[in-house]
Structures are given as C-alpha cells and as structure tokens.
Amino acid sequence: MRTIKKVYVSHPIKGQTEEQIAQNEAWGKEWVETALLAEALLPRTIPVIDHPGEHCPRVMDAGQGAEHDWSCYMRADIAAMMGCDGILMMPGWMHSRGAGLELHIALQVGLQPYFYEATPEWRESGRFIWEGLLDG
Q: Is the pTM of this model over 0.85?
C-alpha cells in the first residue's frame, strides 16, 4: 500500500452557501488529517492566476460573486490536484459538474479515491464514519 501524503478535497461549490462550503471543507480537512494522517488540499485555498492582458473565457458561470469563470477555477484546481496522492469526495459531489470532472481525472491518473460518508447517526454524534475506506 502506498503512502498517502496529500489529499485533494473535492466538494460542490456553486449553488452552496458559504456555511455549507466551510462545513464541507472543515469535515474533509479533519477526515484527511485524522483518518489518513495526511495534508488536505482545499479548493478555495488554490489561487487562480491572473494573466495580464487576458480575461476569463466565460465558458461557464462560476456563480454569484465569483471573481473568475468556472473554467479558470477548474484549471487551477486540477493543476494543484496533480500534486496529490488521493482525492476525497465530499457529500453532494455527484451533483457537481466540477467534482465529477475532478474524480474522473483523478481516477485516470491513478490518485487513490476516498468517499466521505455522513450517515444520520454520524450527524447526530458528530463522529466520522469511514469503515472500509482504508482497506487495501
């Protein structure tokens, strides 16, 4: 089994409230640090590089208040994800175009996938459920 040192935390952003995004990031970061003893890479910590004299292509809207286009964020996130050993998919990822794309790319390049599960019991207890995720 290979050593996992850094894990990209993938979660929906567009259409989420600031509170929902912050909660997903906090849960993901704690899971990576607790379960894997690894560093968590959170999408919103990745800088989008401005290119002087250029503008965002506006391929797809990133949502209200976004400084860049969706494609600008995805390019930066995917580039940063390539420096990771794994990807953690947070709840709601299957409804996010960006998270689905991140998972597809991660699997194609050999990153170890993990799927965060928040059961009703977990929500009540505030504890993590990850049985089976770390097996072989």
A: no
